[in-house]
Design goal:
The complex is a heterodimer of chains A (551) and B (110).
Chain A lengths: L5 H22 L5 H9 L3 E3 L4 E5 L5 E3 H14 L3 E4 L5 E6 L4 H9 L17 E2 L14 H11 L14 E4 L13 E7 L5 E7 L11 E8 L3 H15 L10 H8 L1 H18 L6 H10 L17 H10 E3 L5 E6 L10 E3 H13 L4 E4 L5 E7 L3 H10 L14 E2 L14 H10 L3 H7 L4 E4 L13 E8 L2 E8 L11 E2 L4 E2 H18 L6 H8 L2 H7 L1 H7 L1
Parallel strand pairs in A: 6-7, 7-8, 16-17, 17-18
Antiparallel strand pairs in A: 1-2, 2-5, 3-14, 4-5, 4-13, 8-9, 9-10, 11-12, 12-15, 14-15, 18-19, 19-20, 19-21
Chain B lengths: L6 E8 L5 E5 L2 E3 L11 H16 L3 E12 L2 E4 L2 H8 L23
Antiparallel strand pairs in B: 1-2, 1-4, 2-3, 4-5
The chains are: A alpha+beta (551), B alpha+beta (110).
Chain lengths: 551, 110
């Protein structure tokens, strides 16, 4: 994985010192809260319901064991013993004291981590496929480009004060695991007809109040031109976005207001200007230098036979073990969705134990997925039974990756200052209803995503079943959306109708799922059935109880 | 314009650690049960104005009034947000102010 060079180390160290000084000035009264707030946000520090919340960047979701241990240390020393992995593949701590933050940042810097660009109107943490470098489906590892984008965009003078936050993801496989098209600027690594590798660039995706799937900007951008093209998109956004209206400031609004063709034309004009200046080329040597950091481990020559084990191990293999590019290796998903637990939460004990497990089994890095799980990208198949046994002891071996209980949920009103309703209790209730593993397997792939407000951190627009928490005169209600997708067949979920109470939402979801089981044709996932039959049959069943009550 | 609620409590977050605090006789208390309850607008507004001195002195940030109600002789927050702020996460009863026995008055179950 990428290691800091002298410049990176100095930059992050200086940033820690700078924030230490800013905190001291705030506490001494030299800075007001209005002056301090943008400074703390630039360092990922929010004031939430119970305390400060610190959001730590996990670039393209990759962590080594030292970094995992450091997160455990921070959870133990400065928080209440746990952290929360987010859909941006970052880590959040929800019980942080302002006075501790400079020390935390210093601890993070010692393992090459920071909180820069995890908040504010800038280019946020660039995400990637969590199977990057391990899957045999990809054209090439997307993370070197993510790292190049990170270096190019960090404190870029044009992009420090964008109209709104800006999210980029990079993918390199036909199967999209990174919710690519829901980003402000998705980048897909592709090959053209001549077999050359380049980039397909989209713009204007996003969730929130006005959900849009990103639209194609350019089908093939040459390698050396990628930064020039990305800069062109950002420059058009910066110049033409609606800074006058907080609800219209994202690039998705601009793209959809002026239309795909006009956006393409404006970007192309900027692109030609930047190219003509010749100032923003990506030299092959630089790409190679960064790529070297992401070279895969030296894979041993191993027997490709998959071990056979207990009933529990076999169930885990069914959903949580995936095909690897190298014989004798596998990709293993560590579910952070144990039934009854908060999606994405992990304790300091679990983090430390995972770091030990990585070291013991020679696994250099672990990945955070946008679905709030962890992934061991390069596990030897022969080690899987021992890894599984260890994970079982840690309550990290839930065999539900991609199943109905693998629910995305934002922190919601239990922690978040912006939330209108709680997400976590709803996720727990639904997981409990579908706890039976045979039933989960029978239902198959079904992605439930829950947000506690319209900001959509829980990706509800992209859920096969999405749930949005709303506030009705101080009482929590939950709307159901059906038909969303965050995969290569990306689509925006449709709102079913009026919201359900916290008490009724779980049973309503269960009736929707039961309807699918009745209506499905052979081989159909929930999403396929919904797309075939439409909203009506699901809606009729979901509101059945209310109809009985009304009569 | 929304009508002023009949009963209100003044709250803020402490600057140094972000903890939730409540106005009690000119100082800040840690627990909701100790908060002053205002039953007239003038007294509530006066407390809010007094709280701004604590903002200037870097003790608290973001003071505001919120509505409460009396039920069976106990004062309770009305909105879920304030119930959770006063108690702690409903999904972690072992954390936050609710972890203390004195917070039995909160009801945050679904």
């Amino acid at each position: 994985m990428y290691r800091y060079d002298e410049f990176d180390a100095k930059f992050v160290k200086e940033r820690v010192a700078q924030f230490r000084d800013q905190v001291e000035r705030r506490l001494a009264g030299e800075l007001t809260e209005d002056e301090f707030k943008p400074l703390r946000l630039m360092n990922g520090l929010y004031l939430q319901l119970h305390a400060y919340m610190l959001r730590i960047a996990v670039p393209y979701g990759t962590l080594n064991s030292r970094q995992m241990r450091m997160l455990a240390h921070i959870a133990r020393k400065y928080d209440k013993g746990y952290g929360h992995f987010t859909t941006r593949t970052n880590m959040q701590f929800h019980w942080i004291k302002l006075v501790d933050v400079p020390d935390i940042l210093e601890d993070l810097a010692s393992v090459e981590m920071h909180c820069i660009q995890t908040s504010g109107n800038c280019i946020r943490n660039v995400t990637a496929d969590h199977f990057a470098g391990a899957t045999d489906e990809e054209i090439e590892d997307p993370r070197p480009l993510c790292e190049i984008i990170r270096q190019w965009s960090s404190l870029h003078p044009e992009f420090v004060f964008l109209a709104r936050k800006f999210k980029i993801a990079v993918g390199a496989t036909p199967h999209d695991r990174a919710a690519l098209l829901w980003h402000d600027m998705p980048v897909e690594i592709v090959k053209n007809e001549a077999g050359e590798v380049g980039y397909r660039v989209y713009a204007g995706g996003g969730m929130g109040r006005t959900p849009y799937i990103a639209l194609l900007m350019k089908d093939f951008v040459k390698r050396e031109d990628i930064l020039a093209y990305l800069e062109a998109v950002l420059r058009v956004y910066n110049q033409d976005s609606r800074r006058d209206n907080i609800h219209k400031q994202r690039i998705k609004i601009l793209v959809n207001a002026i239309g795909q063709e006009e956006m393409q034309r404006r970007v192309e004009r900027e692109f030609e200007e930047i190219k003509a200046s010749g100032s923003l080329q990506l030299p092959q040597e630089e790409l190679d230098r960064i790529r070297a950091y992401f070279a895969p481990p030296k894979f041993e020559t191993l027997d490709d036979k998959m071990p056979v084990g207990s009933y529990d191990f076999e169930n885990w293999k069914k959903t949580n073990v995936h095909k690897h590019r190298a014989p004798g290796y596998a990709i293993a998903t560590i579910s952070l969705k144990a039934i009854g637990q908060t999606p994405g939460d992990i304790s300091h004990v679990q983090m430390d134990a995972l770091a030990d497990l990585m070291d013991q089994f020679g696994i250099d890095e672990i990945r955070v997925s946008h679905e709030q799980n962890l992934v061991l990208p390069h596990a030897r198949k022969r080690d899987l039974p021992a890894i599984f046994a260890r994970l079982q002891k840690l309550d990290l071996a839930t065999p539900n990756s991609g199943l109905i209980t693998d629910i995305i949920a934002c922190p919601g009103l239990d922690y978040c200052d912006l939330a209108n309703a709680r997400s976590i209790p709803i996720a727990k209730d639904i997981a409990k209803r579908f706890e039976n593993l045979d039933r989960q397997h029978d239902i198959g792939e079904l992605k439930i995503k829950i947000s506690g407000c319209i900001n959509a951190c829980g990706h509800h627009h992209a859920g096969h079943i999405g749930i949005l928490g709303v506030d009705k005169k101080g009482v929590e209600y939950y709307q159901i959306l059906l038909g969303g997708s965050g995969a290569e067949d990306a689509s925006v979920g449709n709102i079913m109708g009026p919201g359900f109470s916290a008490h009724d939402i779980g049973p309503a979801v269960e009736r929707v799922v039961d309807t699918y089981v009745k209506l499905r044709q052979s081989g159909e996932r929930f999403l396929d059935t919904y797309r075939r039959v439409g909203m009506e049959p699901f809606k009729n069943m979901a509101y059945l109880e209310q109809m009985y009550a009304a009569h | 314009m929304a009508a002023t609620p009949a009963l209100q409590v003044l709250t803020a977050n402490r600057l140094r650690d972000g903890a939730v605090v409540y106005w009690q006789a000119g100082v800040w208390a840690d627990e909701f049960k100790d908060a002053d309850v205002f039953n007239d607008k003038a007294a509530a507004d006066a407390a809010l104005a007094a709280a701004m001195v604590f903002v200037k002195d870097r003790v608290v940030v973001n003071p505001y009034l919120f509505a409460v109600r009396e039920e069976a002789g106990q004062i309770r927050a009305i909105e879920q947000r304030e119930i959770i702020r006063g108690a702690g996460p409903s999904v972690r009863r072992d954390l936050g102010k609710q972890a203390k026995p004195s917070m039995e008055a909160f009801d945050v179950s679904i």
